[in-house]
Design a protein that fits this description.
Layout lengths: L3 H25 L4 E5 L5 E4 L1 H7 L3 H4 L4 H4 L2 H16 L5 E8 L5 E12 L5 E10 L1 H23 L3 E9 L5 E9 L1 H7 L11 H4 L2 H4 L2 H11 L3 E8 L4 E10 L3 E8 L1 H23 L3 E5 L5 E4 L1 H7 L3 H4 L14 H15 L4 E8 L5 E12 L5 E10 L1 H32 L1
């Protein structure tokens, strides 16, 4: 029969065994690697996670030291701190270091080391806790590389680039924006250095963004996430310029890229003015003038063409000239036009007489000319079509023919009379 004393002893033994089992389970199934390491670096005891981190089985680790699998560039630091613990000048240390995995790849860990000392103060063994941070290091390295590439691109980009963060009120509304980044091109385009702008408020340093409506654009981009692109006329202090703006949300802020397009914009405006002057001149000419593709499809026609034929520009443009009723009075006329454009497409200047219908449905004679336009490679890019009303010339020619015929008739009659008298 069990006595009370023996029962208490049994319960104590059972409780101790349960605690030991609990600690053993905690040791084996911890989410971090836990190891007991001897003063010389030999592995004494390791849990499952240590094996997973370095790829060696517990049995394999117990035959080697941590020095055997430590990256040589990290070994001196680790051993130096370990010796300080052995010397009693410190009890713990924490470092990031690299191990060689059994497969040969590098594994990054955060290593936390403490020690258990004997009664005499000497280190009995070390307790090492290993946390695998390889993926964290990879992400950090990728971010660093991305930052380097970003800065390299922005340092050499000819476009201005700035990043701003939102400055919000206690109610959450955007009150202003604060500079976080400005590249050299932006410094040059704005005439402001980054040191004078980083950390400063946009509305204070450039109040014109408020009067020109750009501040509202920036707020809308941040709140909705919708990018904004536009060319805007920006009056500077020294000169007025055109910029192409692209605005996109970045976190709780925005990035803006801007390019000085003043030279191109001025050229476009000059070209538009030149084209308008040319259009005014062509519309004032009485001749029919049009621009076609090499295949005869009309691209432009002047007002004289529309007035004479009574057509609308929509009736002409985008169609071959020989398909328009004014120019297709007979199959022969269509064939003549197609043939002439084929010759002009090969680079020949063509000229011939034709007849077209005017706005009243009457056929009028015209002098048609096709003049090819060549590019730098001597390829025909367009053809200029012109047609001049030659009704007066045709009437004059007909009148001349009539006079010549009448004169010939009279001469013949006179000769006949003379011959009759002589006989």
């Amino acid at each position: 029969m069990m006595t009370a004393e023996s029962e208490d002893t049994s319960n104590a033994s059972r409780s101790l065994a349960e605690r030991e089992a609990m600690f053993r389970n905690a040791f084996e199934h911890a989410s971090v690697g836990i190891a007991h390491v001897g003063p010389e670096g030999q592995w004494l005891n390791v849990n499952r996670r240590v094996s997973e981190i370095v790829g060696y089985t517990p049995e394999e680790l117990l035959k080697i030291t941590f020095q055997d699998i430590t990256h040589p560039d990290d070994l001196d630091l680790d051993l130096g701190l370990l010796n300080e613990v052995l010397a009693g000048t410190r009890d713990t240390y924490r470092i990031e270091k690299r191990y060689y995995h059994k497969t040969g790849r590098i594994v990054w860990v955060t290593l936390s080391v403490s020690c258990i000392r004997t009664d005499t103060g000497e280190v009995d063994y070390f307790i090492s806790v290993l946390q695998d941070i390889t993926e964290k290091k990879r992400i950090s390295r990728a971010l660093a590389d991305s930052e380097i590439r970003f800065r390299a691109v922005q340092e050499t980009s000819p476009d201005g680039f700035m990043i701003f963060r939102s400055l919000r009120s206690t109610s959450g509304n955007i009150e202003d924006f604060v500079w976080e980044f400005i590249n050299p091109a932006a410094e040059q385009l704005t005439g402001r250095v980054s040191q004078a702008l980083i950390g400063k408020r946009l509305s204070v340093e450039m109040p014109e963004v408020l009067t020109r409506g750009l501040f509202d654009v920036f707020c809308k981009t941040v709140e909705t996430g919708e990018p904004w692109r536009r060319e805007i006329y920006y009056p500077g202090e020294s000169q007025r310029r055109w910029f192409h703006f692209t605005v996109a949300r970045v976190g709780d802020g925005f990035a803006v890229s801007f390019q000085d397009v003043t030279a191109r914009k001025r050229a476009e405006l000059q070209l538009q003015a030149s084209q308008q002057r040319l259009r005014t001149i062509l519309d004032g000419v009485m001749s029919l003038i049009g621009l076609t593709t090499p295949g005869g499809v009309l691209l432009e026609v002047n007002e004289a063409s529309l007035r004479l034929t009574g057509a609308d520009s929509a009736d002409y443009l985008g169609k071959p000239i020989w398909e328009h009723p004014a120019w297709s009075n007979t199959p022969a006329m269509q064939d003549r036009l197609i043939s002439a454009f084929t010759e002009a497409k090969s680079g020949k200047r063509m000229r011939f007489d034709a007849e077209i219908y005017d706005s009243s449905g009457q056929l009028i004679p015209v002098d048609v000319q096709l003049a090819p336009i060549f590019d730098e490679a001597e390829q025909v890019t367009d053809i200029v079509l012109s047609a001049v009303d030659i009704s007066e010339r045709k009437r004059a020619e007909a009148h001349r023919e009539m006079l010549l015929s009448e004169l010939n008739h009279r001469v013949k009659n006179s000769l006949a009379t003379i011959q009759a008298i002589a006989a």
